[in-house]
Design goal:
Oligomer: single chain
Strand order of the largest sheet: 3-4-5-6-7-8-9-10
Low-confidence stretches: none
Radius of gyration: 18 Å
Helix content: 25-40%
Largest sheet: 8 strands, parallel, barrel
Distance between the termini: 29 Å
Shape: globular
Order of helices and strands: EEEHEHEHEHHEHEHEHEHEHEEHE
CATH architecture of the largest domain: Alpha-Beta Barrel
Number of domains: 2
Structural class: alpha/beta
Number of helices: 11
CATH superfamily of the largest domain: NADP-dependent oxidoreductase domain
Mean pLDDT: 93
Length: about 325
């Protein structure tokens, strides 16, 4: 697995970034030991980059990996907005992963300059931790072009993780060409660029080969965070991002059966899922949550915001 320097940081990462959301409690609910075996298999095959978030609930899985592969690069994300919440998020990540240095710490879902400004106190705290050597680089994740452009303007942000795929699924404020231009500008200014939702949250599974080729050809993308739940998915993603699709056998191909979102019949229609959905895919009809499958990117955030956990991605 090829490694590249992440922008102008001193961090080198594999082209494949192992996304841990799908193994965690928001989706497959893998036990810690089971999930860690998959993470270790990735490390044994040259993947050194792992993506998580406070929301994902996978710090314990990664702690097992890090005991065996302490040199692994971990990027995490949180919703902290001031010094207190930032300190809580940093301490939780460090404590639960068993390390006091977090390679990349990002603010989660920063989709505008105004939103980023509202989280400035948290960024200042993380910047101080970076000065102390506790954080390697600061960044944001975003579903929007405006978020990328806000990151470009911010002096402390070095890494941006953004939604991009060949059909533009999940970009909430513009076109694919506009996102491509924004990420090219970010990379041109020395920022590290991580792609997410390369498979459109599962919607592009039937066009997966084209989806991976598109990501691989984008010069501005240093690494792609791919949600992985099995050894087969790991082998497939690693081969596609390395340009080795021809080496794959039929046994290496993941199932074409995509993930799906389910809403339990006992949903109370509280609308908190609507608040969490950045795609506008959730509505309340006759007192129950309803999903628009054409808009849904299967991120699982609606389920995380559901008080009764009535919504799941399976």
């Amino acid at each position: 697995m090829q490694q590249v320097k992440l922008g102008s940081t001193d961090i080198s990462v594999s082209r494949l970034c192992f996304g841990t959301l799908t193994m965690g409690p928001l989706q497959k609910r893998m036990p810690e030991e089971e999930g860690a075996l998959l993470l270790i298999a990735a490390a044994e095959n040259g993947v050194n980059f792992f993506d998580t978030a406070e929301l994902y609930g996978t710090y314990a899985h990664l702690a097992i990996l890090l005991r065996q592969y302490p040199e692994s690069v971990v990027a995490t994300k949180c919703f902290a907005y001031d010094e207190i919440t930032a300190e809580e998020s940093y301490s939780k990540a460090a404590r639960e992963m068993g390390r006091d240095h977090i390679d990349i710490f990002m603010l989660h879902e920063q989709d505008s300059e105004h939103m980023l400004r509202g989280h400035q106190q948290a960024l200042e705290y993380f910047a101080k931790q970076k000065e102390k050597g506790h954080i390697g680089a600061l960044g944001i994740s975003t579903h929007s072009i405006a978020g990328v452009r806000a990151a470009i303007k911010h002096p402390d942000i070095e890494v941006v993780e953004a939604v991009i795929n060949f059909k533009g699924f999940g970009i909430i404020d513009g076109t694919l060409s506009q996102m491509e231009a924004a990420l090219a500008e970010a990379a041109g200014r020395g920022m590290g660029v991580i792609a997410m939702k390369a498979l459109g949250g599962g919607h592009l599974m039937r066009e997966r080969e084209q989806a991976f080729k598109y990501i691989r050809k984008q010069d501005c993308i240093h690494s792609a965070a791919i949600g992985i739940q099995s050894l087969r998915e790991l082998r497939y993603a690693a081969a596609c991002l390395s340009g080795r699709e021809d080496e794959l056998s039929a046994e290496d191909l993941p199932s074409l059966e995509g993930r799906r979102l389910i809403i339990e019949e006992w949903c109370t229609g509280c609308s908190k899922c609507m608040d969490a959905c950045r795609q506008g895919a959730m509505t309340i009809v006759n007192g129950k949550a309803v999903v628009d499958a054409e808009k849904c990117v299967l991120c699982g955030y609606c389920g995380a915001n559901c008080p009764g956990l009535y919504i799941k991605v399976i």
